[in-house]
Amino acid sequence: MPEAAVHVGSGKVRELYELEDDRLLLVASDRISTFDVVLPTEIPDKGRVLTGLSGFWFARTRALVPNHLLALRPDGRSTECRRLQMLPIECVVRGYLTGSGWKDYCATGAVCGHVLAEGLRDSDQLPEPIFTPATKAEEGHDENIDRERAAELVGQERLDEVEQTAIALYRFASQHAAERGILIADTKFEFGLDGEGRLVLGDEAFTPDSSRFWPADEYESGRPQPSFDKQFVRDYCETLGWDKTDPGPELPAEVVAGTRERYVEAFERLTGISFDEYLADPQVVLR
Ligand code: Q0Z
């Protein structure tokens, strides 16, 4: 637990502390959620993998948009960041049609106002990535909204800037990841404003918790794809007949070990850095 820091927020698997008025500490735990339930068993180093990946992407996308990262702590799981005034929308970019986008398409033929071609199948790649904002739900699921509604929340000019920036970030990272055998089906950003009203990328970036990572070599459209990181956990849970309500099941050691390996593999493939090097000095991802 960080010394002399006031706890200001809890996510399902992360904690947020205030260091000073204008500086926060974001701590990624080893907790894992599946089917929206946080499990009682942790995945060792998961928080470090996610923190290292976020730091890696923040360092590599600074020229596209400034971000909140100030420093990575030596524990490898804590990010010091600038406090921003966060925008009240979730900024999702989809390169593939799945999840709530697939559901909305099946019901209406459109996702957040993007009318798509007929006859698309689950997990199809979209001809161009689309920006599909959502509201921030305090509890339960974020709700997809069209760009008209999003413009009411942040203003049309700001929304245009956010959309263009989010799509540029997605194109950059998805190309990098695809070259390393990982498809980024979709991803969620949170943006904020600094004291001068400039747009800044906050929260986390291109982690397996904020994105859907798919193994490229198993990709086949027309069906749901296996998750790069959580598939062992999901498969195990499906063997139990668990009703997917809280509390979730404990995970056996083999499932924990296999899942940890997948997180570490994602880190190493995407960063090209050995995870042991990261543990020895988290700053390696920023160079
Ligand atoms: C992020 C969240 C977490 C609970 C607020 N740089 C920033 N400035 C202001 N606010 C935030 C950030 Cl990152 C901010 N969240 C999401 C993260 C636990 C909620 F670790 N909420």
Say what oligomer this is. Answer: single chain
Give Rg in angstroms.
Answer: 19 Å
SSE string, helices as H and strands as E: EEEEEHEEEEHEEEEHHEEEHHH
Number of helices in the DSSP assignment: 7
Helix content: 25-40%
Shape: globular
Features:
single chain, 287 residues, 7-stranded antiparallel β-sheet, 5-stranded antiparallel β-sheet, 7 helices, 32% helix, binds ligand Q0Z
Describe it.
The protein is of the alpha+beta class. It is built from 7 helices and 16 strands. Strands 8, 9, 12, 13, 14, 15 and 16 form a 7-stranded antiparallel sheet that branches. Strands 1-2-3-7-6 form a 5-stranded antiparallel sheet. A two-stranded antiparallel ribbon has the order 4-5. The longest helix has 23 residues, at 156-178. It is globular and about 55 Å long. The protein starts with 5 loop residues before the first strand and ends in a 7-residue tail after the last helix. The model has no long low-confidence stretch (mean pLDDT 97). The chain binds ligand Q0Z.
